């Protein structure tokens, strides 16, 4: 299979379940919503070393938010136990503290809810108020009043949807990966949690040489080691590759994001091969076959 | 005292010691360095609820970096013990994974060092190389090779330098605070770790009503509670205020940042009062008297 | 009439016909399309002193463009005669010269067309090619090949849709205007051609004092002259106002943009009054009554 | 000669005299100054088809501007006659109309001055005021008062300093050119007037086939024509090239910018050759030999 002359490997991406909260952050302007959301979703690339995976899912126009102001929706992904703690801390430290923000549940129809009781911060001066049909708490603060919902729906979603963008050199692969990541930003329901949506250094579980390491470089995907390791997965002529990793609300949107991203990558000159990462199907319950989704 | 007709209260900011690492992140373009640095310094507004305080300190042109590429310097601030762990995790998860980044020590002359041994990630394929006079490790990864120093100087700096920007209404106070935060971005050696560099909700230690809360809204600084609480610190005619909180490498740069920020805030129409926060001098060893620094 | 407690004056905006071309600019990434479009639509705020009015109308995802790459649509508005010249010059100087761009007709079903024969630049080395069903010319250039359509539909649209955002002080009015302008950016078919989409200095035709001036400050809308001129249109308590000026493909989208912008402005604290500008109905054939459109 | 292994051709860039005005635009925040400046310097890539060449020269912190607010300096370059007209129109339409802007002369010590009498716009309500030692006019407008100087120093500077960044493929050449353009943005006294600072399509004077064309593609620099034209200047292995064109206040800063840009380009993997453009020395009085400036 080929797109724009770029071969698509006949393989699949393997992905895993994760719990996800979707939070709507609004502000006086879209810029201020983005600033709060960027801080709240920082240090959240990979559940391996970060306390959660998080990112901006979509930008919302005023007619898409409960209070009629511009906003963004963020996804926070973690185990169920960690998820509540991370939503509490990230909203309390990065959004309640940010200028003009309000916060709303982005999954109001989810069956399960977590309670994020920021209103105790009001020390008794807080009160309840309905905004856009949502039951909110109002907390007096320095800038005036913070307004926010405190119950957030959570659902079981999908983490680790992925594909590889391989290039004849590093800049071609990078621009291909950027085109993919930018295109995925238009797909609702998903995030790419790494910086710029792109992973430059993939890992394998454990380490052959350093037994104390939980993860180490995946030498089979390192172009500079192509001649040095057995079973290199780097095709001839490929000098750099990047991975796009996608978390999303369900299988459908993750597949849609993979399709959108791969098609975008294949418009960039110098992109020469597309593949995807899996562990032989032994670990993750979700399989995204490239042939099928494209 | 007045600046541009804005009264400056005769008070002082109280600040505290913190350990600080300064990391230089370079990349193929400045944009990519900023993307990695933004992720690496996210979820890091306040040491109370975040694992550290962090931010982008300055933008570096190619002739200011060891490898001749554009970059940024970030500061990571925490207790000595937490600092090492945070530098390791944030570099490993947010910078090593980001496209085209390299990492260098931003405090090479500091007496104390922390070791951040990312090279074990190379699983034996890593090797050493000198770049711009710095002893680096080269780790084969998917995009090619990651290059970075692994010893980082740390110093005892200053956290919590601050001032309040008070306005006749919320938008005036906000724009005053933004002008202040933007101006401080030009001062070397400091960061403002909150979203957009601005704090919208100040806190007091503990809570009067909810004994389980470690911190709660500082009602004396809430404009909507001005008539409801005793000893409100909100002057008549002030309807919103923001705090700018500054961490820096030493007292001198923090004082310089406060001066620069206050002067900038006072150029914005509708800014009506400047003050600063302290705990009566009982807690922090550093005092920044507004009269003196201005 | 009131929105969020902000009075809406019972008046109307008066607008005029203009010829409009809609050009789709694509590039390897959205950033590069925006850079080319920003240059191509610069120096184009008002037909009074600029050669045309122009702006970015919308951002296009890869599945919305003929070549499957990210893009933007721009509108260029002028008299019929000037329009062709401006489209030629702006595409030739600002888009053909920009990295990785391609250009497509954004009004393919328009009855009238203008021809923009950039292919002569190819000096005989150019050739024709179909891209996404569009008949394009390919021109060899330094970066490789430029691809573009050369027939562009033009239609008679509407220029000068407008409203005023008035605030209790300058920063409130400015943030209200920015919220309005940002919200209008989500409406398809319209542009706001001034910097940031906002006009800070409205004008009247001619001048009372300087007979050689074709236009001068509209003193009736100057807050600092409220007590000095007869018939000031500045309500009591208003210390600053901004005008949002909208050009669009037809009456419907201009009215939609006005509605969207006014609603957004009224969410900003300190915005106190909304009005619109007209010349008594004597000049422009289009009238947008605020009551009706809201 | 080589930099980072990239061969630098032993040639020179040929450049021309131009008249230049340098205008300082300040605003309540740096963002607003940039928005006004971007509009004012748009449609200004090349004097061939645009009314002038213009761009943002540098960003100014509050302590570098007459009114203590953040700002930018722009350069406007044209023939002496066109320069005055362009400064008048661009300030009147794109800066006076923009929120919160003020304007100051950026070449106060220049011997020659042009007068830009915007104050007639005040229709008699204008008055004079000193700001930061500058004699300004204050004009009542909708947002309050516009403040600006009206005498601007102009000097004879240099237009058309240039170099070529050539790559093994398009994305490598593009990223090399972007690294160059970004680095040049740190050099004071110069602009790169094309979108993103980069030229994708170089031209020769006239046309061989179409006699009515004043300029056409420079086929000797087209990689796709390398085998089809005699005397191609495209080295073997080069599949794309970009030109960086620099205008500046004097020979020294243009040479400095060329050096800074070339060094930056040579840090990007896949950049394979650096050259410069000239007309055999017959046209321009300025010669920048690459060997000498590097």
Protein architecture, described:
4 copies of one chain form a homotetramer. The first copy, chain A, has 294 residues and is of the alpha+beta class. Chain A has 2 domains: 2-14 and 157-293, Alpha-Beta Plaits (2-Layer Sandwich), CATH 3.30.70; 19-155, Alpha-Beta Plaits, CATH 3.30.70.520. In chain A, 21% of the residues lie in helices and 35% in strands. Chain A is built from 5 helices and 17 strands. In chain A, the strands form 3 sheets. In chain A, strands 3, 4, 5, 6, 7, 8, 9, 10, 11, 12, 15, 16 and 17 form a 13-stranded mixed β-sheet that branches. In chain A, strands 1-2 form a two-stranded antiparallel sheet. In chain A, a hairpin with a 2-residue loop joins β8 and β9. In chain A, α1 (30-40) crosses α2 (80-95) and α3 (170-184) crosses α4. Chain A is elongated and about 65 Å long. Chain A starts with a strand and ends with a helix. The mean pLDDT of chain A is 97. Chains in contact: A-B, A-C, A-D, B-C, B-D, C-D. At the C-D interface, α1, α2, β9, β10 and α3 of C face α1, α2, β9, β10 and α3 of D.
Topology readout:
The structure is a homotetramer of 294-residue chains.
Chain A: E1 2-3, E2 6-7, E3 12-26, H1 30-40, E4 53-60, E5 71-78, H2 80-95, E6 102-105, E7 112-115, E8 127-131, E9 134-141, E10 144-148, E11 151-167, H3 170-184, E12 190-191, E13 203-205, E14 215-217, E15 240-248, H4 251-265, E16 271-275, E17 286-289, H5 290-293
Parallel strand pairs in A: 6-10
Antiparallel strand pairs in A: 1-2, 3-5, 3-6, 3-11, 3-17, 4-5, 7-11, 8-9, 9-10, 11-15, 11-16, 12-15, 13-14
Helix pairs in contact in A: 1-2, 3-4
């Amino acid at each position: 299979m080929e797109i724009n002359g770029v071969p698509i490997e006949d393989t699949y991406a393997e992905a895993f379940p994760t719990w996800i909260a979707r939070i709507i952050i609004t502000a006086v302007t879209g810029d201020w919503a983005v600033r709060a959301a960027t801080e709240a979703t920082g240090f959240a690339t990979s559940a391996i070393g970060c306390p959660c995976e998080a990112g901006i899912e979509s930008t919302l126009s005023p007619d898409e938010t409960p209070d009629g102001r511009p906003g963004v929706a963020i996804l926070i992904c973690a185990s169920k136990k960690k998820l509540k703690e991370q939503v509490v801390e990230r909203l309390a430290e990065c959004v309640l503290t940010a200028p003009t923000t309000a916060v709303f549940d982005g999954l109001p129809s989810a069956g399960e809810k977590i309670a994020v009781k920021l209103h105790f911060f009001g020390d008794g001066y807080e009160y309840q108020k309905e905004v856009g049909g949502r039951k909110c708490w109002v907390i007096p603060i320095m800038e005036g009043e913070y307004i926010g919902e405190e119950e957030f729906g959570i659902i079981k979603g999908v983490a680790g949807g992925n594909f590889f963008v391989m290039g004849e050199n590093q800049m071609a692969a990078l621009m291909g990966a950027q085109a993919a990541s930018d295109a995925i930003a238009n797909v609702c329901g998903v995030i790419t949690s790494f910086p710029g949506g792109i992973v430059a250094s993939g890992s394998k579980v454990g380490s052959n040489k350093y037994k104390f390491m939980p993860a180490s470089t995946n030498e089979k995907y390192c172009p500079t080691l192509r001649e040095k390791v057995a079973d290199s997965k780097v095709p001839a002529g490929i000098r750099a590759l990047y991975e796009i990793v996608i978390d999303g609300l369900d299988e459908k949107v993750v597949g849609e994001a993979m399709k959108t991203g791969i098609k975008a990558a294949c418009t960039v000159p110098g992109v020469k091969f597309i593949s995807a990462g899996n562990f032989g199907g032994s670990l993750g319950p979700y399989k995204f076959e490239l042939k099928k989704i494209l």
